[in-house]
């Protein structure tokens, strides 16, 4: 099963994905896309890490997500990716070539992975259109990516106030 | 049937509305409210246009939306308006008198139109309250307009990641 | 019954909460958290007040929400709090100690209140992540507060275009 967990900031996306991982009863591989570039981000990463069971394997991958999924997904393993929005920001910072290559690789690899994969991503497009062209680009790319991934996933959930709302698939 | 398709940026609103138009089996009139004021907007307009069937009649109307609906709606025709948020921005740029007149005209005309009409609009009020008073005004007016239109429509859909979530009416 | 009404700006949250109050058939206590610091806010407050029945008791409380709920909640009374986002902003402006004390007090007091309470709050975390650290903090705290309150409430509704979407509980 491929899952996409969407929601706003602090909507409970990561926690819901972590519960899905625990409920699977499988070995869990946690793919972290965050890069601790400043103290605030380091604190956020630390907070997420403290909540995860020690038995989970953590893989840090800011860019080559498709390759890491191919390495780690398989029967008996639950792969949790948190989160796609940071990954997207990392890709766009690397330039158009890296962005297009890695984005396309994820979309190509995802359907063929043998085991369950759960992707967490931020909904960022429901506020006022940003005045900053880079922010506008980011909002566009996040929205388009979510549409393409949702079409490939079996289950899509939108989180609000820690509560899951099913957009696709069974609860 | 009157429909309102809401959703964030790149949530698949236009595509869903276009699918509704195709599924209707009717002649389609596409009312475009966008004005190509800069290169970015021209590119967005071009992208939308390339996706539409050639058989559709396109009507460009940045302001007098009620009049264009009265001209074009009727049995056997599906009228698709994309999008209300740009129209609202156009109206507010023209000043209070034009804004109030055209907004009121749309609300008065809509219920009496004989054929199906599908209105696409952006959800912009779920981010942080904008510091800019004009942006705040825009968020307020968009929200109030959506409420009044939703009360008049038979079907209201909220889009996320290309997936429709029904807020009112039947799927 | 404890209820949480979430939604974006001008999504119809207050109106929905007011309808719930009227439908309850109980005496209504309206707890207003807004402080009329400028003309725009005074106008917003005036608009809300003009819509409320004269029989409702209005209590203004920018900070000590838990104490006001203890004073006013009880069998035969419907307490409506509008809104938590303004209250949260008021608390953060007072400093960390007041913020932590009052936030914790609300979470402790809410489950034990004898009568129905309806809390209105703004969803602010679905736009682009704000560049301003204070805005980012506000988005984080609003999201975390919503998660904790939603877990304590019997009914959670997300409003869009004046239409309620049930996230938890029965309609």
Automatic annotation (TrEMBL), chains A, B, C:
Pfam families referenced in this protein's UniProt entry, alphabetically: CobU (PF02283)
Keywords from the named record: ATP-binding, Cobalamin biosynthesis, GTP-binding, Kinase, Nucleotide-binding, Nucleotidyltransferase, Transferase
Active site positions, chain numbering: 48
Domain of life: Bacteria
Entry annotated with the keyword Nuclease: no
UniProt pathway: Cofactor biosynthesis; adenosylcobalamin biosynthesis; adenosylcobalamin from cob(II)yrinate a,c-diamide: step 5/7; Cofactor biosynthesis; adenosylcobalamin biosynthesis; adenosylcobalamin from cob(II)yrinate a,c-diamide: step 6/7
Alphabetized GO MF terms: adenosylcobinamide kinase activity; ATP binding; cobinamide phosphate guanylyltransferase activity; GTP binding
Enzyme nomenclature, EC number: 2.7.1.156, 2.7.7.62
Record-listed GTP binding positions: 7-14, 32-34, 49-52, 60, 82
Reaction catalysis annotation: adenosylcob(III)inamide + ATP = adenosylcob(III)inamide phosphate + ADP + H(+); adenosylcob(III)inamide + GTP = adenosylcob(III)inamide phosphate + GDP + H(+); adenosylcob(III)inamide phosphate + GTP + H(+) = adenosylcob(III)inamide-GDP + diphosphate
Class of enzymatic activity (EC top level): transferase
GO biological process, any: cobalamin biosynthetic process
Family in the record: Belongs to the CobU/CobP family.
Function: Catalyzes ATP-dependent phosphorylation of adenosylcobinamide and addition of GMP to adenosylcobinamide phosphate.
Record's protein name: Bifunctional adenosylcobalamin biosynthesis protein
């Amino acid at each position: 099963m491929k899952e996409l967990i969407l929601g706003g900031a602090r909507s409970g996306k990561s926690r819901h994905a972590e519960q899905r991982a625990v409920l699977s009863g499988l070995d869990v591989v946690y793919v972290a896309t965050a890069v601790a570039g400043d103290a605030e981000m380091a604190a956020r990463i630390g907070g997420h890490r403290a909540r995860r069971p020690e038995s989970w394997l953590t893989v840090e991958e800011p860019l080559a997500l498709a390759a890491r999924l191919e390495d780690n997904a398989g029967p008996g393993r639950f792969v949790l990716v948190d989160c796609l929005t940071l990954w997207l920001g990392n890709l766009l910072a690397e330039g158009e070539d890296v962005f297009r290559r890695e984005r396309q690789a994820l979309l190509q690899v995802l359907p063929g992975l043998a085991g369950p994969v759960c992707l967490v991503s931020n909904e960022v497009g429901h506020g006022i259109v940003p005045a900053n062209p880079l922010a506008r680009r980011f909002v566009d790319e996040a929205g388009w990516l979510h549409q393409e991934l949702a079409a490939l996933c079996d289950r899509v959930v939108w989180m609000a106030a820690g509560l899951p709302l099913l957009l696709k698939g069974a609860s």
